Amino acid sequence: MTFISDPERKATLAARTGASPAYLWQIATGWTPKGGKPKRASIDLALAIERESNEIGPEGVPWRSLLPEVWVAMEQLGAVPGAANDDAAPSEGESPVEGSN
Q1: For the chain (length 101 residues), average pLDDT per consecutive 10?
Q2: Which ranges of 18-81 does DSSP label H, i.e. alpha helix?
Q3: Residue 67: closest CA among 47, 92, 51
Q4: Where are the chain's structural domains?
């Protein structure tokens, strides 16, 4: 939650990912609008958050922490056998699932 609690880093991350600071807060906290679903990052945004937060430093935000249900589903499908939960995000244009490029 460091990026969300530090206004300067949050603003930099927002500028680099194209998401508003308010939306980054919503997805980081799992904010749920009345009668709605919790705010979640898209896969593309989660990958961008990981990539850009690693560049901003000092620590990054792993995409798997933003989309745990996607990570679990990929493991259940056998798409990432033996992969550690702290592996780097795929490069831009590279699919997080092997063989799907």
Answers
A1: 79 93 87 81 86 87 75 56 50 52 49
A2: 21-29, 43-56, 63-66, 68-76
A3: 47
A4: 2-76
Token output for 3: 């990026």
In order of 50, 53, 58, 94, the CA distances from 9 in angstroms are 13, 9, 10, 26
Q: Terminal CA-to-CA distance of the chain, rounded, Å?
A: 32
How high is the pLDDT of residue 11? 93
Q: How far apart are CA 38 and CA 74, in angstroms?
A: 21
Report CA-CA distances (Å) from 61 to 33, 44, 78, 99: 24, 14, 24, 25
